[in-house]
Amino acid sequence: MSEFFTTTAIVATLASGIRLSAPFLIAALGESVGQRAGVLNLGVEGVMLIGAYAAYNTALETGNVLAAVFVAVLMGVLMGAIYAFITVVMHAQQGISGIGIYLFGLGITDLLFQKQVGTPKPIDGLQTTSVPLLGDIPTVGEIFFRHNALVYVAYLLIPVVWFVVNRTTFGLNIRSVGETPEAADTLGVSVTWTRVSAILIGNGLAALAGAALALEIGIFQYNLTAGQGFIAIALVYFGAWRPSGIMAGALLFGIVSSTVLQWKTLGIVSGSASSFTAMAPAVLTILVLVVVSRRIGQPSALTNPFDRSD
Amino acid sequence: MDHPRPRGNQPVVLGVDSSTPRPVSPMSPDLDVPMLEMRGITKRFPGVVANEGVDFTVRSGRVHTLLGENGAGKSTLMKILFGLYRPDEGSVHLEGTEVEIRSPADAISRGIGMIHQHFMLVPTLTVAENVALGLGGAWGFSDLRPIRQRLVEVSERYGLQVDPDAFIWQLAVGERQRVEILKALFRDARILVLDEPTAVLTPPEVTDLFTTLRQLRDDGRGLVFISHKLHEVMEISNEITVLRDGRIVGNTVPESSSRESLAQMMVGRPVLFTRTVQPHDPGEDRLVVRDLVVQGDRGNLAVDKVSLSVRAGEILGVAGVSGNGQRELAEAIFGLRPVESGGIDIDGVPADSLAPKAVRSKGMAYVPEERMRDGVIGEFTVAENLVLVDHGSPPYTRWGFLRFGAIKKQCTRLVQRYSVKTPMLETLTRSLSGGNIQKVVIAREFSCGAEILVVSQPTRGIDVGAAEYVHEQLLGQRTAGAAILLISEDLDEVLQMSDRVAVIFRGQIMDQLPRSEATAMRVGRLMMGLKAE
Amino acid sequence: MVTTENPDTSGAPSSKGLWYGPLVGLVVPVLAVVAALAVGAVLLLALGASPLTGYAALIDGAVGDWNAVADTAIKSMPMLLVGVGICIAFRTGVINIGGEGQIILGAIFATLVALAVPDLPSVFLIPLVLLAGAVGGAIWGAIPGALKAYAGVSEILSTIMMNIVAAQILSFLLQDLLIEEGAIKIQQTRRLSHNADLPLLPGGTRLHLGFLVALLVAVIAYLLIYKTSLGFRLRAVGHNPDASRYAGMHVKRSVVQALALSGACAGVAGAVMVFGSISHRLIGEGGATAFTQGAGFNGIVVALFGGLHPLYTVPASFLFGGMLIGGIELQRELQVPAALIVALNGVVVVFVVSSLRLKTKLQRWSEDAVLRRGRK
What we know:
The structure holds three protein chains of three kinds.
Chain A: H1 7-36, H2 44-62, H3 65-89, H4 94-117, E1 128-130, H5 140-144, E2 146-148, H6 149-167, H7 169-179, H8 181-186, H9 191-217, H10 228-238, H11 243-265, H12 271-278, H13 280-292
Antiparallel strand pairs in A: 1-2
Helix pairs in contact in A: 1-6, 1-7, 1-9, 1-10, 1-11, 2-3, 2-4, 2-9, 2-10, 3-4, 3-9, 6-7, 7-9, 10-11, 11-12, 11-13
Chain B: E1 36-45, E2 48-58, E3 63-68, H1 74-81, E4 89-94, E5 97-99, H2 104-109, E6 112-115, H3 127-132, H4 145-158, H5 173-186, E7 191-195, H6 203-218, E8 222-227, H7 230-236, E9 239-244, E10 247-252, H8 259-267, E11 285-295, E12 301-311, E13 315-319, H9 326-334, E14 341-346, E15 349-350, H10 356-361, E16 364-367, H11 371-375, H12 382-386, E17 397-398, E18 401-402, H13 404-417, H14 434-446, E19 452-456, H15 464-479, E20 483-488, H16 491-497, E21 500-505, E22 508-514, H17 520-527
Helix pairs in contact in B: 14-15
Chain C: H1 20-46, H2 51-63, H3 66-91, H4 99-116, H5 122-151, H6 155-175, H7 210-227, H8 229-239, H9 241-246, H10 251-275, H11 288-292, H12 295-305, H13 313-334, H14 339-375
Helix pairs in contact in C: 1-2, 1-14, 2-3, 2-13, 3-7, 3-10, 3-12, 3-13, 4-5, 4-6, 4-10, 4-12, 5-6, 5-10, 7-8, 12-13, 13-14
């Protein structure tokens, strides 16, 4: 264990923890916007995969990272439009629709990958960019300020989402529509359009998260996300629908995961025991939630379709 | 007292002296044109005609009451006005011009403000945010400062004090209603519709509300007041329109009416306001509550050292405005809420920590105040709801399996005995009318052999016919020797039915009076928190 | 106080004695499936393949001969079992996304029993391993259930997490304790006791006893939900936990029971998958999803298709299983990756789910029509 408690090891752990947390964070922030408007999207995993593949494929074809990100987000918004139609217009049960989107995303990305790419080819993904000045600070700089662009985006999203939800009229609409849609409706707020917009944002961000993952790893494969989309959903509950809480959850998950990886690399835990420790983030999430035991904060109208005639 | 009978649908407005000078209203320049006129409104739903040929007029500077039973068509008419429904026939005119109101937003933009019975407020947002909702369009930063400022101005003008930065969930009911009114005023509502506004207010709050309403009226607005509380209607109205079964039954003014005449118009037959109850000697104490302290949902003390006892064969009525601890008291007695301190004894045996199932086994039954939420399961059939409590015991269950033959037999018997109007036993309970749902609850609770009954707001929201039936059943149980704790915000009901009356105010029992001393005046004062001299 | 997120369970046949309610209930999803298949045809065309050949291959692969039917049945088994469990959970108002993990724990428990008492005669060992599977799954369901009932933790969150934990437990066990001895280290156990093999059913196909077990579980679940007092309570809590409390029911206990029962069904699926498989081993190679084949999620879909009614879940699981099996044939025939079928399944789900509200409205309308006629 002493190998772990060196500065290099700890710094590397924290830095990669922050890096690992970025996709969770982006996806969870997006999901939280949708959920605060009252819409549960269990298909985040599928949309992340679609975003990841879209980014990967675009980067492969064009070599342009920016284009890759753009296409990914576009695909996400498109999926969002479909999901919005299903849930808000057709009033479909949200939990199951999400699973359907997940299955669709899983299948279609695999299909397209096999058809269009075949054998995996690596791409030039995101480069690490060091923040000028701040990145040069020893230790601290290494941990916080030497990441790829999308990690910075992820963390910048936190105050942005907070501001939009809490300090704009759009955010006020979202918050009201997720709690008491009847009240918003009687005041002339369009429940439909507010929810649709929230879903588009949520899915766009989910795709962005997938893109972040693919571009950072530099390759695509079947089921690349391996459950991270579902973890992102769980993080929304963990964070009590607040950006600050979600950040805490994402960091918790990211850092614990990277610690486990580090221990494996350093040989502190053997192969099999690493599985044991790999479940640590999941267990910790549950434990923290039990201890803190929050049920305040869940948007009251979550998963309830709104029908004026009800 | 005689009054001219209305001819057909012609409104007969009595007692108005048109030569009395009236202050010129800045809102409605042409005094002959009513602010609102609804003509010949008809609205049909599958299986029922909610409104038929209804004419309704509101003039500036008047409070016009819309009176009627549940299901008479009052809310439908107002929903049409507010753009939630479209009429099948008829027209709506504002200031003399025919309009088509397509949505609530449309109604608001035309100056119609609705203060709903169930407040349309978002609990997790602040007062200012609730008022601001929908004002800013979808884009832009929500800057609440101008809102807050104007809020302070408007609330001061009409005496609607409220803290703009308080969250709705922190506010008491009366304060929440003020926010509802402020929302309407903020949007320059000139016609205000108030749907059962006094249902949840204490008497002093009602007085404050009426002061505000008079002020709003005198500023030239037209107010529609929907209520079934006859004495309030008499107090605040300038005009009264009575609806029954979707049709206008009469138009009158308070000066020419009485509670009896209004009730008769509402129901179509004379209604008893007093009931003779046979006195009889009560038996032993069945339920005793000693210095009970129970916490409320917001960390407050909902029940503050309450002591009372209910004897066999008597009805102890607990009078008080909703929200003074009645619900928490009933829940604690029934085991649905933990007891902080004090004791509850059933037949002398301590029962304060028992769960509902155990409490029931000791012989207690409960008719809850929210029947759709707590009394029945809407998606279950009538039969299933009738056996909701006993389903697990013989004869309904054997070896874990439900015995449908036995269930059907018993339920058929119950439905007959308690006059529950339902097409089949397999009908889903949610399709029944409120009165019949209550009958299902009563059939279930009164027939399981319980000898201690806790009955909470039993006639709230049900029509007079069903209410009479409920009262008959209660008195029948009383004669049979049951100990009944009747909790009701309806003062008339408590005074009619009880052998003894206790009054609860802010979680404390103000006083307990025998029937002979329980006058409306005395009990009313106690309900307001005024101690007896 | 426990609140249960109440899924829209009104999609199930609720009107007894009114036959066209359920008929509408059947027609609408079928139309939705047809619509989804049309989308699939478009996809096939886009990939340069013929939809006709494709769908013909699909049908052939699914039910073309008895072997195909057997394969379809084998594929449907785990989804059926999980789906039946989901019916129980959803009817109690709990969303169980933990099927994957519950399958794994069931498989682990069953494997441990087979390793512990390999020489027990089949007539005892087989029921025992199935029971062990049920117990394993039940525990894995009861934990999120208790977390929800007593700690207020959303079951959506906890079941997701439990899936992750289960996958790691599987990986851990198969790398170390349970791994087959030998030079090559594959994540699998040794060939388990022959006495625990699920016997093949007559007919010369690969179909084994597990199929009958699955059908039996579906029937038991049906009886449980609709004919027992326990089922009464679960349904009551699912519709209205407040009224259930007032009526004296233990709501928290019911929530735990529902998730435990739901997990038990998935656990049996895990046991069946190990002891009905050709290899008769617990194989973790390729990760947890390789073992479960996504049955934990597919089961949710299948349950919904069946209107949350355990008996209708049987044909629904067949439909899904048929599509997945047929997809392999389609891949072979058209050189289109079978992943298309996975995507297509997603489309079918989405279409069917979208149509459900429509179906509910039509059903209610037809109910009201009958009632109105009855009143006259």
